[in-house]
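Fold this sequence, please.
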Amino acid sequence: MKKVLKSAAAILMVLTLAFSAFAIGGVFAEETEPLSSFAVSAKGSGADSAALGTVSWWKSDVDGKYYMFMPSKSDLSSITVWFTAADDVMCDGVKLESGAQTGMFANGGEFVLTVGDAKYTVVFLNSSKLPTMFINTPEGGLDRIHADKSHKEKGCTMLAINSNGKVDYDAGLASMKGRGNSTWGYPKKPYNIKLGSKAKLFGMEKAKSWCLIANHGENSLLRNQLVYTLGGEIGMKESPDCRSIDLYINGEYQGVYLITEKVEINKNRVDIFDLEEATEDANGGVDLSTFSPLGVRTRFSGYLENTQKWYDIPNNPENITGGYLLELDFSERYEAEASGFVTKKSQSVVIKSPEYASQAQVEYISRYWQEFEDALYSSDGYNDLGKKMSDYIDVTSFARAYFIQEWSSNWDVGLSSAFFYKDLDSKLAAGPIWDFDECLGNAHGARDGVDLTDPKNIHAKIRNLFYDSLMGSNDVKATPNVFALAYRHAEFAESVEEQMKSNFVPAVQRIMASTFDDFANSIRSSAVMNAIRWNTYGTTDLAAIINQYDGEIEYIREFINIRTPFLAETLTLKNEGFTIAHIPSQKRTGSEITPEVTVKCLDRTLTEGVDYTVAYSDNVKKGTATVTVTGIGDYEGVTATTTFKIINISDPLDWTGGSGEKRAKENLNKMGADFVDGVELILYYIVKPFQK
């Protein structure tokens, strides 16, 4: 009984908030309208289903009709209607009573409400499978959040109902705020919510902090969910768990959202040592943000190479080798972050946790990353300390993150939302993956000269750093980002190839066998409501919207079906080919000349007789000889050629009749010698005494 009373009280509160917002406009008709508001509340359709939140009508500017976007599990056979009207409200000759139940909307569809001479066409649409979330703000509006993304709205309540119609959460929120960078500028806003207490939502692990991703501009509404699921399938255990939901705020339908786990250090998320918590403990529980910010914190600090910023925190835990969560981001965004560093190669790295890092912590992790970066950039794979890339990173995790970026053809690969973490006394690992609305062909066209709408493209492997220059214009710096640099190293490319066969391709096949269609089918009816709510296709015609949405799904399916085998064939170590070191000119001996050949694949020096064979031609007489290297074993099918010069001189030359460098060369050429100046030719001048 207490639960019933609680739910009823919640509904009444929702209605009070909703009707207090009528003057604001939006979902409601003008106050001068004979029917200025209309809302309904329904029960769940199952015997054990919970009472659902209240839903207000919404007017489309496309057709002038009012839409009731109903949650899944809504029992329309007995709904309660609420309205504000100047006269009696009639529907099909039946008078409606505000606050009373009615069964006339049981079959959904289109109805005409009349108030005197005024007519209102109301269309009932129903979600079929998605969970539902109702959020109500204290004053029935989002103005303060929308005016300031960082504003934390207090006093909100939330009702979360899972796909089975059962309540997962029915209590207050600690806060609600805006989120995102470029996505915050879209009409359909993304949000962060923090629960009053930890809870499991829609089958996900218990936590307080959650993200509500709007997926505006991503019309399939499933790209993020698909990629995150694939990340988990290939072994990225920290890949965010997520669910598509129907979101209502203050009774107004907001569309299909993706609720995801927040990227944070937590035993159910990035499960590593919590250095931030340990630092707070080392400083007597003092709020770390209250310490003074130090380091380089100028307007353009994200562009200042080899700099750091930290907080003047006096005490550190005994072990500070782990508990770091890092993010690569655009240089212009770095300034707003609390702690971080910029590498010698212009990569800005934000320390997400500990957010307020001490000087010792920043110095440790920035030095670690810099040594890793030095190894990445070196031609032989080793930094000045004699260490290679794999001494610093978990190559397998980096290869998995690279594959996700390359396979998805992600627009922002490695530029922003690229996360890495480091546990105590451990190597750096890549993840969690994040932000994939602009992927799988949903791109603006070309980047780095690569058409990202072409399923046969290679992009992550060559991606350069991107930043807004100090003068404010967009610029591409000819410096590869971390994944492109890693692929220059054979051990990384080899890991990608090995996992491609054993892990990546099988995982994609499993996802496409059932999960992909499951996602699409669960979203489809809600996607129709979302398309009308946000005018995605410029029409409210249901058949046209369904056709468009199904086309979005088939586009992704075809993109994946082409791209997956293409990458499996392309991302192999032997496809990187051979490079042959320069062979200097050789002196003619009258016999075959077979100089030693150094062959590499990426930064790996190969072994003759194991990885390749060598053949020579035209290598006796003066002229140009050819060397042909043919791969064997793991490199079968790879060939490469180079040339070297054979010169026909073996003894010092002398001549008379001139002096000076120019005349000397002329004489040598007349004698049939073929020299490369500065390589084989050194002129010696002998000054003889003047004789009368």
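Residues 2-126 form one domain. The mean pLDDT is 90.
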